[in-house]
Specification:
The protein is α+β, with helices and mostly antiparallel strands. It is 36% helix and 22% strand. The protein is built from 8 helices and 10 strands.
Length: 248
């Protein structure tokens, strides 16, 4: 009898394993996967895998993509008047209980060029659930000095009220109410206007310190007091490149 019970137990165990593969327990598997991801992000520091150079490289490609063709969704007139630009990258399953939705950078216009990039982290539910979705990029066009100053002062900036992210125009003829910040979402090579509200954007002091090898504030970076490092030269080149440039 005892041997029979053990044998039945083994059969039950094998059947349960097979069910995971034949679809009978997919619901349970999804729940388990969700919990595992949740525990992973809760136990892992948000900055642990954040390579700022990689963020700069991704952002460079995003800038090059919307500038190579004016029809891609961010009009040249909007970009030419920008006082600053922020690029935010949100990875799939990127914010399940992690407290952060994504990472990115912000630069400010300085004369005929741009400042070095300052690292930013983003939290809040403004992006919507990213679980199972593709990696998404958001471009924030900072239309006013006040918007740049809010990014430069450090601490947290909440996109709400006067500083709410408004969907930006996607053609030269489209008229939008004036706003401190225009927001664009990149999807399959095109950039559509998207409103973002209630989002928290914060200076990432640790990331800036590691990247610049010293204590630097976002204010110092965005005021042009920090030299553009070699690793960010391609980003600045892409920002300075004319619209329609294939090389960027």
């Amino acid at each position: 009898m005892f041997s029979l019970l053990i044998y039945k137990s083994k059969i039950t165990e094998e059947e349960n394993i097979m069910k995971l593969f034949d679809g009978e327990t997919k619901g349970s598997l999804k729940v388990s996967l969700f919990l595992l991801l949740s525990l992973f992000f809760l136990s892992t520091p948000a900055w642990a895998s954040w390579d700022f150079q990689r963020t700069i490289d991704h952002s460079t490609e995003v800038i090059k993509e919307f500038k190579k063709d004016p029809k891609n969704g961010i009009p040249q007139s909007v970009f030419d008047k920008a006082k600053g630009v922020a690029v935010i990258r949100v990875s799939e399953a990127g914010f399940i209980f992690s407290g952060e939705s994504g990472h990115g950078l912000v630069v400010a216009r300085k004369g005929q060029s741009w400042t070095a990039p300052s690292a930013i982290s983003v939290s809040g539910m403004g992006f919507g659930l990213q679980v199972g979705g593709e990696t998404t990029h958001y471009v924030l066009i900072l239309n006013t000095k006040q918007a740049v100053d809010n990014f430069a002062r450090g601490g947290k900036l909440k996109l709400k009220g006067e500083m709410e992210g408004v969907a930006g125009p996607t053609t030269e003829t489209e008229r939008k109410p004036k706003s401190h910040i225009y927001v664009y979402k990149r999807s399959k090579g095109f950039f559509g206007g998207l409103a973002l509200t209630g989002l928290d954007i914060a200076e990432s002091k640790d990331t800036n310190k590691r990247y610049y090898h010293k204590e630097v504030s976002s204010k110092e970076i965005l005021s042009g007091k920090v030299a553009v490092p070699k690793g960010a030269q391609k980003l600045i080149h892409a920002l300075n490149a004319p619209y329609g440039s294939k090389k960027g």
